[in-house]
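FW: tagging you since you asked about this chain on Friday. Here's the raw sequence from the shared folder, copied in full. Didn't touch anything.
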Amino acid sequence: MRMSRFYVFKKLRVQIALHYIVASVLTLLFIGIILYFSIASIVQKEATTNTENAVEQSGMYIDLYIDRLKALSRLLAENPQLVDYFSSTDRQQADKEKILSIIDTSIATDPFIESIVMVSKDGQIISNESGLSMSMSSNMMKEAWYVSAIDNGDVPVLTSARMQDFSMDKDNWVISLSREIKNEQGRNIGVLLIDVQYKVIEDYLENLDLGHTGFSFILNANHEVVYHEDPAYFQNEIKQQELYEIALDPAAYDQVGRTFTHLYSLRNADWIFAGVSSQDELTAIKNKLFNIFVLFGFGFLVIATVSVVLFTGRITTPFRKLERAMQDIEKGLTEIKVDSRGCYEAQSLSRHFNGMMMEIRKLMQEITDKEKDLRRLEISTLHSQINPHFLYNTLDTIVWMAEFNDSEKVIEMTKALAQFFRLSLSGGNELTTVENELDHVRQYLFIQKERYGDGLVYTIDCDPSLLKVQMPKIILQPIVENALYHGIRGLDRQGVIEVGAETDGEYVIFTVRDNGDGFDKDALLQNRANHSTKLGGVGIKNVDERIQLYYGPEYGVNIHSDHNGTTVRIVISKTLD
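HL: got it, structure written out here
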């Protein structure tokens, strides 16, 4: 009994197999560890380099904008007309009007400038805004804020609009830049204040990709928070301390949190800009590498074991048949016929191979289904991107009508806005009808008509046979919005938008025309490649991809533009799979 127990292990084939398997495991483990850490190190370096470049670029953009503001403040503070006006005791209204004209021209060059305020040493104010809540006196050097503005120099400071108490409403925040106004003898005669909307920082950092849980922030020289997307960091001292501790380390990779931090010191301000990347891509690649190594290791061990059995068992013929059958896998995921006359090992391997083919087909189908679900999720996300500026402007128009007791217009605008959002949401459904899609555009243009008045004329025509045709929702409204904002807005003549729907056999053709000045087609193509052309919050490329996702590559968006206007054609099918 004892002899039979050890008899199996004394067989040459078993000894060779055990030795071969142990050697293979050690070799695979050694190579796998080296490859894993080598590739992970390369990917990590690439990820950190991308983060550094992204943070450096965003910081540089902010730096360049502040530099431009400083240049503007210098030009204004050294303007001869302003210096003469503040130096003179006999100030003429005509001179003040000229300075106001210069202020208006300066504001027109930058949409983010909230206000420009010029205060003389004796308390005279020149500004584009009225009703500023500033403490004034005949000797402004007694006013703390005036002296503070001089001390700050041209260093940007985060404050609240119009010198009010600091609130947590980001819409009222401004970045203030001050500069002392001096006469020819170098003596103080006033202070220049330029208030820029806090939104300018958010716009510059909007496209900064730092991963799923990554974030960015800005601290000044006093370790005070200048920017963070979460307003809680402006009040919570514990959170502020966390940001300060992050900024202490100039470049650090957190192995536990798997985050990488990069700092950028602005040259034109006493600010430190920090980007904290969550390194999501690195984590995903490491996990994928580990799974690949495990899978290949397992496959290698199976092949090694089979080769030993083939060699030592002297059953080459069945395995040669199996090998030829496995080579045919390049023609497709087909199962291998199990030879009942073959040895047990060959039959077992064939059955396992067939099981693997079934599992691969199953996994491939699951991956395909997940990809479709992912695309549908992306489309649902696009649907939820309702332009807040449109909502704010519409509500502001309603308030304005209410103030003038125009109750009928208020009711019409409110009903149109409610209908607009009802059609936008449509109960969470991804599809709508041509009739509802055109009604969605109609409500939008009706609302805009109330804002633009006689400056906007529109028509909507549709082939009655198309009204009940199913289609993806929110396809036309972004194009119409683009025609309004980028086509006819700003024209010195009446703007016209024409929306039409017609059929050509199996196709439905939507047309959106405007009588604007057109645009450069090459510039548009370049913007589309950079994903920078936006249509009401949804890019042209995304609208085109949505159509092709539903109908196929032969459908989509076509644009023609010249000096007589722009025409956008959207082609879809009457049938939706």
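FW: Residues 50 and 160 are 35 Å apart (CA to CA).
HL: agreed, and The chain is about 50% helix and 20% strand.
FW: great, closing this out.
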